[in-house]
Amino acid sequence: MSLRGTGQGGPLSRAAEVVQVLGGAGFFSVGFLRSLAAGTKKYGTTGAAGFHAQALRDPNKIALIDDDGPVTAGDLDRSTNSIARALAEAGVKAGDGVGLFARNHRGFVQSQMALDKLGANTLLLNTGFAAPQLREVCEREGTKVILYDEEFRPMVEEGTPNLTRYLTFCKSESDETTLEQLIASHDDSDVPAPSRPGRMTVLTSGTTGTPKGAQREAKSQGLDSLIGLFGRIPLTVGMTTFDVAPTFHSWGGLHLLLGATIGATICLRRRFDPEDTLKTIAELKPEGLVVVPVMMQRILELGDEVISKYDTSSLRLVAASGSALPGELAVRWMNTFGDNVYNLYGSTEVAHASIAMPDELRSAPGTAGRPPRGVVVRLFDENGKEVPVGATGRIFVGNDNQFDGYTGGGNKEIIDGFMSSGDVGHFDENGLLFIDGRDDDMIISGGENVFPREVEDLLSNHADVVEAAVIGVPDPEFGQRLRGFVVLKGSAAADETALKDYVKTNLARYKVPKDIVFLESLPRNPTGKVLKRQLVEHE
Questions:
Q1: pLDDT tens per residue across span 424-455
Q2: Which terminus of the chain faces fewer neighbouring Cβ atoms within 10 Å, N or C?
Q3: In what helix (H) or strand (E) does residue 81 lie, and over which residues does it extend?
Q4: Is 416 in contact with 2 (CB distance < 8 Å)?
Q5: Inter-axis angle of helices 293-300 and 327-337, to 10 degrees?
Q6: Which residues pair with residue 70 across a beta bridge?
């Protein structure tokens, strides 16, 4: 089965979509197009190009707001010129590997921009890394320089002691050079275009092992891709967005790039705090909020009394991705904050595959939506044959934004030009995509195939449950049996028997977990994905 996004008709319908979608988003201002073309010509399709374009259009516009206050487009552009010159003086040139180990703040943005301007290969490092992971990844990726936040000094000193180092964030006295010192000591005039565009390496989530490096070269998106993205997520030129998702991850990083491209004012906070997020929304009035689903859950857990203290009416889109969005969570959010959730499904490797809009999440909770224009999704069985509507198949994606392969070699499986997302799912009769689980998550218990996602979503919908995860564990009789892990609400009374009965009432008997373990919280990585390998090890 092959399903495309909306508006896949002939030239006339495509032209009409260009006018409606991109025009409505504010793309057709002469000044906007001219400055963006100039930035892209110089620095490729990078964040540096977008922010440089902002500085050309209006150097006094606020481009960034972080914990330390606002930064104008002009100041951001000039400061990154200085950093780029300093790094070049230290020997960094086009194609060199540089690690960026920082949280969400201006130093992250400045570092990435400066490296874009030099054409460097930027390695975005997971802020949850321990020293051994840091060492392994930097050695594998050929990293020569690392820019990092002060709090990560112990990991950097133990894991990468021989790398040239600069501090991206520092609130205490230090004998290491900071970005502020580089800015103060180097010329801030425009940096010449690099000899080649920069390359970004984003690490996979590593929920089942050491993260792989997924490399992606800066390249222009096709017109269909832009129409598809902006046609299903109401981004507009010059808006204000609050990027709460980690910027080192592909989801937060995508919105940093999109925000730069559309001349947005981007709000960042170094650390996520549920109530502070609401307070920031009330103060800065962003129109967009970029999150991973677990952040939505943490905000809702504050309760109505706390939530009602803050005016969040400025939000017209809440873009969620990075991990599965349970249908019940999307509906609870929209019941509280209005119908503003846009759920993007994709992966680091295939980029975006489908987008669910608020009306779709209302009518079909749990859906991943529809493939937008410029994207084709096909579902294949184990023999590479397409499956019928309603049947579960392996998800393969075709678009212009696929990654360029893993840095250590290898690629995702490809069939007829379509790349595997690593998940399995099905389409319903209305053309909506549903994700059933990872293709390697399937549990075979007593000869029956079970995908944990269905059981997890059901348990999470229980009135006494905050969150749940399900895995397969060895069983001498059935081969595997299901084990559930559940986090209860503070005053909840549900016990193992009650939860098993609840699953038995709603699903087939073979989908009932044989045992349920109660935890205070599920182990997650910094992007909110549950670390099931830790659950496997749990006794």
A1: 999 999 999 999 888 777 787 867 778 888 89
A2: C
A3: helix 73-89
A4: no
A5: 50
A6: 65
Residue 470, phi then psi, degrees to nearest 5: -130, 135
User: The domain containing residue 522 runs over which residues?
Assistant: 443-537
CATH of the domain at 468: 3.30.300.30
pLDDT of res. 100: 97
Lowest mean pLDDT among 76-80, 248-252, 355-359, 402-406: 402-406
Q: Percent of the chain at pLDDT above 70?
A: 94
Tell me the DSSP string of 386-404: BPPTTS-EEEEEE-S----
Q: What are phi and psi of 334, to 5 degrees?
A: -70, -30
d(CA 31, CA 28): 9
Banded model confidence at residue 194, pLDDT cuts 50, 70, 90: very high
C-alpha 518/C-alpha 539 separation (Å) is 11
CA 232 remoteness from chain centre: 17
In whole numbers, what is the pLDDT of the chain averaged over residues?
90
Distance CA 21, CA 229 (A): 9
Last residue of a domain, which of 204, 219, 234? 219
Q: What is the 3-state secondary structure of 187-240? A: CCCCCCCCCCCCEEEEECCCCCCCCCEEEEECCCCCHHHHHHHHHHCCCCCCCE
Residue 235 belongs to a domain = no
Q: Please choose, from the candidates 46, 344, 310, the residue with its C-alpha nearest in 3D space to the C-alpha of residue 191.
A: 46
| 8 has a pLDDT exceeding 50 | no
Q: What are the CA-CA distances from residue 354 to residues 229, 316, 361, 531 (Å)?
A: 9, 20, 13, 24
pLDDT for 534 equals: 86
Q: What is the CATH number of the domain that holds 144?
A: 3.40.50.980
Taken as a whole, the chain contains a residue count of 539
- The burial of 442, by beta-carbon neighbours within 10 Å (0-12 exposed, 13-18 middle, 19 or more buried), is given as middle
Q: State pLDDT tens for residues 314-370.
A: 999 999 998 878 888 999 999 999 999 999 999 878 888 999 999 999 999 999 999
Q: Which class for 41: exposed (0-12), middle (13-18), buried (19 or more C-beta within 10 A)?
A: exposed
Position 438 in a domain: no
Q: Closest Cα to residue 394, out of 384, 402, 404, 403?
A: 384
Identity of residue 190: D
Fill in the DSSP letter of residue 385: P
How far apart (Å, rounded) are the C-alpha atoms in residues 193 and 170? Answer: 30
Amino acid letter, residue 441: D
Has residue 373 been placed in a domain?
no
Question: Residue 469: inside a domain, yes or no?
Answer: yes
- Residue 448 pLDDT: 76
Task: List the one residue out of 406, 65, 361 whose CA is nearest residue 211.
Answer: 406
| pLDDT tens column, 448-504 | 778 888 899 899 989 999 999 998 888 877 778 899 999 998 878 889 999 999 999
Q: Whose structure tokens read 């499986």?
A: 413
Number of domains in the chain: 2
Asked which of 219, 243, 265 is the last residue of a domain, the reply is 219
